[in-house]
Amino acid sequence: MAEGERAEELLDLIGSNDLTGIRLWLAEHRPYEIADELSRMDEGEAIIPFRLLDKDRELEVFEELDPSQQQGILLGLRDHAFHDILEQMDPDDRARLIGEAPAKIATRALAGLSPSERRMTAALLGYPENSVGRYMTPETVILHRDLTVGRALEVVRAKGADAENIYTLPVVSDARRMVGTVALGDLVISDDNRLLKDVVDVFAPRVRATEEVESAARLMQEANLVALSVVDSEERFVGMLTFDDALEVIEAADSEDMARQSGASPVGDHYVSVSVFRLVGARAVWLVVLLVAATLTVNVMQAYEATLEQVTALALFVPMLIGTGGNVGAQSATAIVRALAVGEVRVRDLPQVLWKECRVGFLLGLTLAALALGIGSLLVGTVIALVVACTVIAICTWAAIIGSAMPLLANKVGVDPAVVSSPMVATLVDATGLIIYFSIARMILGI
Questions:
Q1: pLDDT at 274
Q2: Euclidean distance between the first and the last CA atom of the chain, given in angstroms as a whole number
Q3: Residue 26 and residue 30: Cα distance in Å, rounded?
Q4: What are the tens digits of pLDDT across the range 231-243?
Q5: 178-183 and 168-172: which strand pairing?
Q6: CB 330 within 8 A of CB 426
Q7: CB distance 338 to 411 below 8 Å
Q8: Sign of the C-alpha dihedral computed for residues 102, 105, 108 and 110 taken in this order
Q9: Which pLDDT tens digit goes with each residue over 61-70?
Q10: Could you tell me what percentage of the chain is helix, strand and coil, using 3-state DSSP and rounding each to the nearest 5?
Q11: Number of CB atoms found within 10 A of residue 8's CB
Q12: Given this model, what pLDDT does residue 170 score?
C-alpha cells in the first residue's frame, strides 16, 4: 500500500472515531511506519492512535519520533502514562528530550523519574548541548581487564539485558580507567581461561564526553564502529555512543547542511507537519540577505553603463556568464562543504584545494569557452565571441577558487561552512564576474 493511501486510511479512521479500526491498523504496521504517520498529524490527531497502542509497542513508536513530536504526545498523556514512558526510555534519548523541552515539561519529567533514572538523566544533561555526553548511553556492561574470558561472558549474560549495546564492550582498569574495547564475537571464540587483557583492543578509538557529537559520529562512520567509547578528562569510562544515535546525528547534520546550502535556515520537524509561516520564516531571512548582496551586481552594471552603450551586444551574454560562474562556484562550494563534513579536507589543506580547484575551473572554462566561441561567432561575430570565450575561462577559474575558499575560511573563523555555500558564492561571483567581463571587453575591444 502506498504511503499516501496508508496515511489517508488512518486519518479516515480517526475522523470517523473508529477505535476498533485504528487498533487493527496499528496491529498491522511496524513501529517506524506508525511513527511516520503520527509525525504527519497535528497533536490532537496523533494522540488518539498513540493511546490505543499496546503497552509493549508504545515505547518503540515513541522513540521513533523527533523530540518536538514527542513533546506533543507527552502533553496529551495523563500523569501515569507520561511517567511510564519517560521511565522506560533510554537515558540518552530521555536527556535529549528533556533538554529540548520547555521548562514546564522538563520539570514534570524529572520529578516523576525514579532516583536512579533521575541521576543518569541529570548527569547527561550536565554536558554541553550537542556534545557526545548528551548522546551517549551510560547503560553498558563494563569489564575489568583482569577477568578471564569465561568470567567476562558470565558478566555479559548477567547484565547484558539492561545494556543498550553488548556488541562492543569497554574494558577498564582500576578506577574505571579506559583500557580499550573487546568485541563480543572475540569473547565467544576465545578460550575461557584466557585473560581479557590479552584480547582487548587497546587501540580502539575513544572520544571525550565534551567533544562535538557530529565529529564523533563521523569518526564512527569512518572507522566502521558499532559503538564508540566515551571518557572524561581523566580517561575514565563514562559511556558509549551507539551507531543508531550516530546515524541520527549524521542525518540531522546533513539535513542542516542541505538547508543552509540552499539559502534557508534548517527546520528540524517533519515537513508535512511544519506550518507555512514557519517555512516562510526559515527561508525569508536568507533571501533578504541575498537580495541585499545582489545589489552589488546592480552597482557593477551601473559602473559599466557607458561600456554597454558603446557595445550593446555585450549585454546579451550577461545572464549566461553570471549563471555559468554561479553554477561553477556552487559546485565547488558544495564539494568542499561535503569534504569538510566527512573529514576529507581540513583548513590546512587550503593551498592544495585552491590549486586543484583552480585547475578544475580552468579546464571547465576551456570546455565551455569552445562552445561559447562557436555560438557567439554565429550570433554577434568573432570579436565579441572572443570576449565571451575569454571571460568564460576567467570566470570559471575565479568561481572555482571562490567556491572552494569560502567554506574553508568560514570553518577557520568558526562559522558553519554551509552558511557561505552555494547562494552566497553565486551572489559574490555574479558581481565579480561582471567586473571580469567588462574588463576583458575593454582590453579586447579597446573601449
A1: 65
A2: 68
A3: 8
A4: 999 999 999 999 9
A5: antiparallel
A6: yes
A7: no
A8: negative
A9: 888 888 778 8
A10: 70, 10, 20
A11: 11
A12: 94
Contact partners, residue 38, CB within 8 Å, separation at least 6: 46, 49, 50, 61, 65, 69, 73
Q: Rounded to an integer, what distance in angstroms lies between the CA atom of residue 236 and that of residue 172? A: 8
**Better pLDDT: 292 or 117:** 117
Q: What is the pLDDT of residue 422?
A: 66
In angstroms, the CA 173 to CA 413 distance is 40
Length of the chain: 447
Residue-wise pLDDT for 336-371, tens only, equals 888 887 778 888 889 999 999 999 999 999 999 999
| Contact call for residues 211 and 130 (beta carbons, < 8 A) | no
Sign of the four-CA dihedral 75, 80, 84, 87 = positive
Long-range interactions of 335-338: CB distance < 8 A, separation 24+: 335/404, 336/403, 336/404, 336/407, 336/408, 336/417, 337/257, 337/261, 337/407, 337/417, 337/418, 337/421, 338/257
13 exposed, middle or buried (CB, 10 Å; 0-12, 13-18, 19+)?
buried
Q: Is the pLDDT of residue 156 over 90?
A: yes
Residues 179 and 200 sit within 8 Å (Cβ to Cβ): yes
DSSP string, 101-139: S-HHHHHHHHHTS-HHHHHHHHHHHTSPTTBHHHH-B--
CB neighbour list of residue 402: distance below 8 Å, 6 or more residues apart:
329, 332, 425, 428, 429, 432
Residue 423 near residue 414, CB atoms below 8 Å: no
pLDDT classification of 261: cutoffs 50, 70, 90 = low
